Amino acid sequence: xxxxxxxxxxxxxxxxxxxxxxxxxxxxxxxxxxxxxxxxxxxxxxxxxxxxxxxxxxxxxxxxxxxxxxxxxxxxxxxxxxxxxxxxxxxxxxxxxxxxxxxxxxxxxxxxxxxxxxxxxxxxxxxxxxxxxxxxxxxxxxxxxxxxxxxxxxxxxxxxxxxxxxxxxxxxxxxxxxxxxxxxxxxxxxxxxxxxxxxxxxxx
Amino acid sequence: xxxxxxxxxxxxxxxxxxxxxxxxxxxxxxxxxxxxxxxxxxxxxxxxxxxxxxxxxxxxxxxxxxxxxxxxxxxxxxxxxxxxxxxxxxxxxxxxxxxxxxxxxxxxxxxxxxxxxxxxxxxxxxxxxxxxxxxxxxxxxxxxxxxxxxxxxxxxxxxxxxxxxxxxxxxxxxxxxxxxxxxxxxxxxxxxxxxxxxxxxxxx
Lengths: 204, 204
Description:
The structure is a homodimer.
Chain A: H1 15-32, H2 39-46, H3 50-57, H4 60-73, H5 88-98, H6 104-120, H7 127-151, H8 160-179, H9 185-200
Helix pairs in contact in A: 1-2, 1-4, 1-6, 2-3, 4-6, 4-7, 5-7, 5-9, 6-8, 7-8, 8-9
């Protein structure tokens, strides 16, 4: 670590390097959790040196925060910001079901997200970041629900912010059960579809 | 540790001792998490020796499982098994809101529960225990919902098992947000009341 000013503002890593490192962090967290995260393991996984990681991310905690931000930027719900031909109801359903996707990178990001929330109970330092990404997720979903109230695909008495907050909290709970192996992914998706219908669908 | 057969089936601790130890485990987990749990800290908190803990609980993992079982036995939802003068809807609402109780012991048990679920992602060994206590919780709530369908306090088209599973998963998600400091307890209670009304209440 000699000669590297780890307390100074970390330098931005070159784009490709940074992406490779953040994928490596998610992969290590998916195997061991945030609390089992060692910077050395991330360095080995990304094929870079540990001092380089400290140089770019400042600290282990900086690495965790960057991984959470990265998971947030790549969350399936970000698709809600892109116009689509689906109704808003269908777009919300597709986006929330995709959070329970079984592709390794979606799953790894779900573990990063769950771990960051669970760790925030004990690591006050993480709370502002968890709060910020959760609020961004909630705002995306609430906005799409608001559009659904306008396009008629969502019941007109639905309050977008409240419905979005309940639904994303339910998705977090379902992810936790699924990732913890106490509920199948199919069952989690079935329960989510039912809850969406009950919360948002216009009376038949 | 000499002379103590830690691999043998652990001896049952005398009732008072056992209770004091399990309260100490919950308290240590509430401060540091399961992954920060050291048997020595529990021993210090309970005022007993670490070898005594190994003697009674077999291992660190045995201690965690006993704490989860203890949290499950003391969960507010167990009150649903006792007949009450409330309608079933009111009883379910009271029991689930009580899971978000701010008393130190309720809060400590909520942390134990959340930590066990989060740790189950990485510790396969914990999964059967987490699954068992979750299913027991779900069955209690589903039974009460079934009674509500009969007594008319709950909508007659509600499917008790499905509704119970969604509601307890939502409660877990809300607890996680509240304990992680990214949602106030008041907001969590408000969202839960709204979800209960929408999921269970008969049409006005």
